[in-house]
Amino acid sequence: MKKMTCIVCPVGCHLVIDDNLSVSGNRCPKGEGYALIEMENPKRMLTTTVRTICRSHPRLPVKTSQPIPKKLLFKALLEIDEVIVSKDVKIGDVIIKNILDTKVDIVATKSLLIEV
Asked: In which domain, by residue range, is 87 found?
């Protein structure tokens, strides 16, 4: 048996998942879906920064376009650490396409005009 708090909506239901993956304590269907995903393949959004060649803004904030498997977070960070942005970027521009073959992109969360 596992206990967790649902974070899908502001209610914060206290969920209980038994050994047969039966969920109780949820006030809506979203809680059951959340619990099952957390038990089978937890996913998280990744927010971080990438290096740039811009002296006034040496780091550009980025995030995943969708949650990725939790077990891939550190591998994704290693891949992101290899990137250096050297051109102008707008919010939402793809910095890395299909990171780690997850079909998830790393996108800019801020616009940047490169000033060398």
From this structure: 47-108
